[in-house]
Specification:
The complex is a heterodimer of chains A (469) and B (246). Chain A has 469 residues and is of the alpha+beta class. Chain A contains 15 helices and 14 strands. Chain B has 246 residues and is α/β, with parallel strands linked by helices. Chain B contains 7 helices and 10 strands. In chain B, a hairpin with a 2-residue loop joins strand 4 (79-84) and strand 5 (87-88). Classes of the chains: A alpha+beta (469), B alpha/beta (246). The A-B interface holds A 1-5, 8, 12, 15, 19-20, 23-24, 352-353, 356-366, 458-460, 463 and B 69, 72, 74-75, 94-95, 98-103, 107, 109, 113, 115-118, 122, 126-127, 129-133, 158, 174, 178. Bound molecules: adenosine-5'-diphosphate and magnesium ion.
Chain lengths: 469, 246
């Protein structure tokens, strides 16, 4: 009869705590909403953050690389062998030269793509593989020349991944001529003479749809040139790009190099980025098998994750993560202080009643424990509400996206990648779990100081109230 | 010096036993206020027997509340000895003192001090809950007491739905619930009108007589002083007079 056992104590504490929380609605509401709103805010910004991260990767990946990039590289040790050969065969008539970018090609590309797609779909990974190549050279028109990067693409598959085809704009007529602008057309698969020019490039060379243009480039230590016909003009996301980029078909690329079914890169675009490790494993395996089909023994096929293929973008995302982590931390500390403050205030305002309870014989230990239990119960309830609230406010941002165009204006460029102005938030279950448990733990921690303080007060001092302390 | 043998005393109201319940010897208490020391009690010697109905009277600041707090193990003496039922409070830990209050002492405060989130019933029940008394037993006890103090109908009300007099009745029921040996009441009628005060005094006197509970008051109230069977007058932290009525 004199004292409670542990089970009875816990029962008593929960009963008293729940009574307090249920009956002192005003206080419960204030403290609870501090916790709920703090958590909801956290969850919302995490989803936004997650979304902007993924969209940055998505944009970067679709135009620049792919989630996985397969390319042909000169053997790492090739250079050494090459140097030794040079030494030993000083008088050799045919010294092997160093390979340049144009020589580093993958052969039998269609075969590789087909086996990749088969293996991926077998592993239930939805994705697309895409071949691309690039030639640097000079583009000439009667008016002049311009350094140009020709991107060779697959006109059928490319639109599934990037948005070049949406960037076609009507071409202006040559200077001095009057009339309506001429409609641009997307490249056809077997068109090995067609070229699409960046708008600035077209203006500089005074070219319009239907005009001929000559591209000269150096290949196998000889100057080569090829005639193209302008099919359209592209409005690109940056002026630099517009002044130096043109698109051709992979067919045109192969014709230019007198090859067939070759490309510089095969990229794999996944629907779900979290399946990257599995896809990478598949790709490693197939690339190894495909190596045997290569005739150029100096080249080694390799498959890289986007992080390896786009190190600058990857570095940026890492930095971006760090920045947002820092912002999160500051936000977290502020919310924590707010919660701590409300919990502490709530305890301080009720100190007199703690004194009464202790005067009536509640031991200081149980008194302190009561405050912790109270905070725990409130923490769980408020965090659950915060979780639901966080999901609810994230919903529209996930479904419809947040339009930031007024805030950031034109798309900001990051490492050659132009950011989208509408951020689509992305669900982040790990974040939900992490922040909700953190919120419960935080509510508990916030009660420790008032609890400690209360247990170290005498009943009498507590009853006198905080004013006389 | 635990005095557990019944002593017969002609002076005091008679109940079944006459054990010494409170024993105080040369009790001094100083409060430090800034740099100066205030002596609230300057050497008090006192014996109170079980079943007494005793009032401390005296001007404001004379040490009445301090003395009650010492007896109720709410405060620690600067010097001297306080014993309850023969046990010296000075040697007890905070937990032991809480236990003593829970099991032996009931408090009635001038400002009622009911817990605002609890109903009248739950306030009276509190001590029993902390003691782990089973629910059925609690309920019987508390309802009996609330009926005895005339609040059987208002058991479900919260303190802010009760008048001052009703709140103090709840406080009396709360003090009684644990069946303490001793109830300490610090100016219990000070915030009440005289009619309400009179009825509460009558109630406490009845409980004192019927159940043998020892009551110690501090008071200014002439009605309480009139009802008390022993009046101890405090002046400047010392006992100036100690009169028992027959
Ligand atoms: N917590 C305290 N701190 C400082 N002085 C106190 C404290 N409590 C009481 N006192 C002083 O002790 C003296 C006795 O006070 P108290 O016992 O409350 O008297 P009473 O109850 O008879 O009015 C007074 O001078 C008062 O100012
Ligand atoms: Mg007083």
């Amino acid at each position: 009869m004199d004292s409670l056992d542990l089970k009875q104590s816990i029962k008593l504490l929960f009963k008293l705590a729940i009574r307090q929380l249920k009956r002192d609605k005003r206080r419960t509401l204030i403290t609870g909403s501090a916790i709920s709103l703090g958590l909801a805010l956290f969850i919302f910004s995490d989803h936004i953050q997650q979304g902007s991260y993924q969209s940055l990767i998505k944009v970067g990946i679709s135009t620049q690389a792919g989630h996985i990039v397969i390319q042909a590289q000169e053997h790492k040790d090739e250079q050494k062998i090459h140097d030794r050969q040079k030494l030993s065969k000083k008088l050799s008539k045919k010294p092997s030269r160093k390979l340049n970018q144009l020589d580093q090609r993958i052969e039998k590309v269609t075969e590789l793509q087909m086996s990749l797609e088969q293996a991926l779909s077998h592993a239930k990974i939805s994705g697309l593989s895409l071949a691309r190549a690039e030639i640097g050279g000079l583009l000439h028109s009667p008016v002049g020349g311009a350094r140009t990067r020709l991107l060779a693409i697959d006109p059928q598959l490319e639109p599934k991944v990037s948005d070049w085809h949406k960037r076609l704009v009507p071409a202006k007529l040559p200077q001095g001529e009057k009339g309506e602008p001429i409609k641009s057309h997307w490249l056809k698969q077997d068109d090995d003479r067609g070229i699409l020019l960046g708008q600035k490039l077209a203006e500089r060379l005074d070219l319009t749809v239907g005009d001929k243009v000559v591209f000269s480039y150096s290949y196998q230590q000889e100057n080569q040139s090829r005639l193209f016909r302008v099919r359209g003009v592209l409005k690109l996301s940056s002026e630099d790009q517009e002044a130096s980029t043109a698109l051709i078909t992979l067919n045109a690329y192969n014709s230019s190099l007198n090859t067939q079914d070759q490309a510089q890169k095969v990229s794999i675009h996944l629907e779900q980025i979290d399946l990257l490790p599995q896809a990478l494993a598949i790709s490693h395996k197939l690339v190894k098998a495909h190596q045997a089909k290569q005739t150029n023994a100096r080249l080694k096929l390799e498959s890289l994750s986007w992080q390896e293929a786009l190190p600058a973008l990857y570095q940026f995302t890492l930095k971006d993560r760090q920045t947002s982590l820092a912002i999160f931390l500051i936000m977290g500390i502020m919310i924590a202080i707010g919660v701590l403050n409300t919990v502490a205030m709530s305890a301080l305002e009720r100190q007199r009643y703690f004194g009464v309870m202790m005067a009536l014989g509640l031991s200081p230990k149980l008194m302190g424990a009561l405050l912790v239990v109270e905070a725990f119960v409130l923490g769980i309830f408020a965090s659950m509400i915060g979780l639901v609230l966080g999901i609810l406010v994230s919903w529209p941002a996930v479904e419809y996206g947040l339009d930031l165009s007024e805030m950031v204006g034109e798309g900001m460029e990051v490492g050659g990648v132009v950011m989208e102005t509408t951020i689509h938030a992305v669900w982040h279950p790990e974040g939900l779990l992490l922040f909700t448990s953190a919120s419960i733990i935080l509510s508990l921690l916030a009660s420790l100081w008032p609890a400690w303080r209360t247990t170290h007060l005498s009943a009498l001092d507590a009853m006198r109230g905080p004013d006389t302390q | 010096m635990s005095d557990s043998h019944p002593q017969v005393s002609e002076q005091h109201e008679v109940t079944s036993t006459h054990e010494t319940i409170v024993h105080i010897q040369d009790l001094k208490k100083a409060y430090t206020q800034g740099q100066s020391k205030v002596w609230a009690l300057r050497g008090v010697d006192l014996e109170i027997k079980a079943g007494e109905f005793t009032a401390f009277m005296g001007p404001s600041g004379s040490g009445k509340t301090t003395l009650l707090n010492m007896i109720g193990a709410l405060d620690r003496p600067s010097e001297g000895i306080v014993k309850i039922n023969g046990r010296s409070l000075g040697e007890m830990s905070d937990t032991e003192r809480a236990e003593l209050r829970r099991n032996k002492v009931g408090f009635i405060f001038q400002s009622y001090n009911l817990l605002p989130v609890l109903t009248a019933y739950e306030n009276a029940e509190f001590v029993l809950m902390v003691r782990g008394v089973p629910e059925a037993e609690r309920k019987a006890k508390v309802m009996e007491l609330l009926t005895a103090v005339g609040l059987g109908e208002l058991a479900h009300r919260r303190p802010n739905e009760l008048s001052g007099g009703q709140q103090q009745r709840v406080a009396i029921a709360r003090a009684m619930a644990g069946e303490p040996a001793l109830i300490l009441a610090d100016e219990p009628t000070a915030n009440l009108d005289s009619q309400t005060g009179a009825s509460l005094i009558a109630l406490m006197r009845k409980l004192n007589q019927e159940r043998g509970i020892t009551f110690i008051f501090s008071t200014h109230d002439p009605q309480v002083i009139k009802a008390a069977k022993r009046v101890i007058r405090l002046v400047d932290g010392q006992i100036a007079a100690d009169e028992s009525k027959t």
